[in-house]
């Protein structure tokens, strides 16, 4: 290949680059677009929960648990619970699996199954599994009780959480009255 051929190739590449840059500049002049003052869309969100800071400094969501529980139903809860059944038993007298047995869980002390080895965080938590605690825990267990060994991602849909809580409450010797 002689130098004349090489010069033609380099000139063609440079010409294409200049043509692309020139077309870009020309289209900016022809099609001038004014940018908005604030980029993006305004998304209207219904307020379901308010965030409040507790005495420990950790932000908790205050949820209207009565309205949340009205969304769920036991039949849907049984279907959604199948995700939980891989690690938890729900039958009366059921044995502990990877997770503790959940029969009679609503109203029970957190970390209260004597023959199950809980994480230190759950054993020291010191509260009872009521509707609010279950709701918060089921959103994202690792965020609700830091240090728990439960590696479940959580249930994002409110209806699914309410349904599972109703199903857990039903599977008890003495179900608690719904709020």
Account of the 3D structure:
This protein has 179 residues and is mostly helical. It has a domain at 63-170: Cytochrome Bc1 Complex, Chain D, domain 2 (Orthogonal Bundle). It has 7 helices and 2 strands, in the order αββαααααα. It has helices spanning 3-30, 65-71, 74-81, 120-123, 131-139, 141-144, 158-170, and strands spanning 49-53, 59-63. It has a two-stranded antiparallel sheet with strand order 1-2. Strand 1 (49-53) and strand 2 (59-63) form a beta hairpin. The chain is elongated and about 90 Å long. It starts with a helix and ends in a 9-residue tail after the last helix.
**What percentage of residues falls in helices of 4 or more residues?**
40-55%
Radius of gyration: 29 Å
CATH structural class of the domain at 63-170: Mainly Alpha
Measured by DSSP, the beta-strand proportion falls in 5-15%
Class inferred from helices and paired strands: mainly alpha
Identify the CATH architecture of the domain at 63-170. Orthogonal Bundle
Which secondary structure elements does this structure contain, and how are they paired or packed?
Elements: H1 3-30, E1 49-53, E2 59-63, H2 65-71, H3 74-81, H4 120-123, H5 131-139, H6 141-144, H7 158-170
Antiparallel strand pairs: 1-2
Briefly, what is this?
The chain has 179 residues and is mainly alpha-helical. Helix content is 41%, strand content 6%. The protein contains seven helices and two strands; from the N terminus they run αββαααααα.
Features:
mainly alpha; Cytochrome Bc1 Complex, Chain D, domain 2; 2 strands; 41% helix; 6% strand
């Amino acid at each position: 290949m002689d130098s004349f051929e090489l010069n033609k190739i380099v000139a063609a590449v440079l010409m294409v680059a200049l043509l692309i840059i020139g077309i870009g500049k020309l289209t900016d002049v022809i099609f001038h677009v004014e940018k908005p003052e604030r980029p993006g869309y305004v998304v209207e969100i219904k307020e379901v929960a308010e965030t409040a800071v507790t005495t420990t400094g950790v932000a908790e969501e205050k949820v209207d648990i009565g309205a949340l529980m009205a969304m769920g139903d036991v039949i849907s809860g049984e279907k959604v619970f199948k995700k939980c059944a891989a690690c938890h038993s729900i039958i009366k007298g059921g044995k502990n699996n990877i997770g503790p047995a959940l029969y009679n869980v609503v109203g029970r002390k957190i970390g209260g199954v004597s023959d199950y080895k809980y994480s230190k965080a759950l054993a020291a938590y010191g509260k009872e599994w009521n509707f609010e605690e279950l709701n918060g825990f089921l959103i994202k267990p690792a965020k609700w009780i830091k240090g728990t060994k439960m590696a479940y991602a959580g249930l994002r849909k409110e209806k699914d959480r309410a349904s599972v809580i109703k199903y857990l409450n039903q599977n008890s010797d003495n179900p608690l009255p719904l709020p």
